[in-house]
Amino acid sequence: MSMVLQALGPRVWPRLSQFKPPVLRIPGGETLYVKSRHWSGQSQPQGPRLRTRLLITALFGAGLGWAWLAARAEKEQRRQQQRTEALRQAAVGQGDFSLLDHKGQPRCKADFQGQWVLMYFGFTHCPDICPDELEKLVQVVQKLETEPDLPLVQPVFITVDPERDDVAAMARYVQDFHPRLLGLTGSKEQVAQASRNYRVYYSAGPKDEDQDYIVDHSIAIYLLNPDGLFTDYYGRSRSAEQIVDSVRQHIAAFRSILP
Q1: Are 113 and 228 in contact (CB under 8 A)?
Q2: Which of 180, 193, 132, 210 is nearest to 202 (CA)?
Q3: 169 versus 71: which is more confidently predicted?
Q4: 108 known ligand binder
Q5: What does the DSSP assignment read for the chain?
Q6: What DSSP character marks residue 35?
């Protein structure tokens, strides 16, 4: 080692002499040499530069997240539009209907223009399915009512059993669900016409000894937009939360085609 220092001494020694350890003089003549914590040629990270890098990284990540959410929302909106167009081409709900509400007032489809409508076909003597589906429909309406930025959705119940579900029977039935639930009934021909318009199947079963019977029918909740057009439908497998999300999306994407 000494030979190396002797060989390099003339060139290296002046540089090494610059790195003298700090000296701490203590009263009484004693001298201490303090070890330095930093090596020559190294620098500590600058605080402002580090914060700037972190800020840029955070902004870049936020931008990617926003772009992903926007692309997802656009994709969902296109899917909803394609579904709506397919349902319109199926000519569901294109025709008019003429029925009586549970207060005895005549009603037609034009009466609901300008409103979002959730509609269900069933009958008051239904033992379980109709009450469950109507309860789910009411839950959807109530959840949407809590959002002040959304328009009110009108719930409608149309009977497929006009023989037993007259105006009085509908009035007694709807009062157990929601104060704005509208029950509609009519003659056999009027109910048949409304059912055909929405592609609703129904068939009364055989009567028992008490003249009671069950009506087999399609199970779906229909969504109509303010133009009166059939927009979507929801089967038994769809939960109230899923229907609420779907209705929100349809409301956000709605653009009237009426003059």
Answers
A1: yes
A2: 193
A3: 169
A4: no
A5: -HHHHHHHHHHHHHHHTT-PPPEEEETTTEEEEPPPSS-TT--PPPHHHHHHHHHHHHHHHHHHHHHHHHHHHHHHHHHHHHHHHHHHHTTTT-S--EEEETTS-EEEGGGGTTSEEEEEEE-TT-SSHHHHHHHHHHHHHHHHHT-TTSPPEEEEEEES-TTT--HHHHHHHHTTT-TT-EEEE--HHHHHHHHHHTT--EEE----TTS---EEE---EEEE-TTS-EEEEE-TTS-HHHHHHHHHHHHHH------
A6: P
**pTM summary value:** 0.67
Q: Is residue 32 helix, strand or coil?
A: strand
What is the rounded distance in angstroms from the CA atom of residue 218 to the CA atom of residue 31? 100
Q: Is 130 annotated as a binding residue?
A: yes
**pLDDT tens per residue, range 221-248:** 999 999 999 999 999 999 999 999 999 9
Does the annotation place 217 within a ligand binding site? Answer: yes
75: tokens are: 């994709």
Which residue is associated with the tokens 């203590």?
26
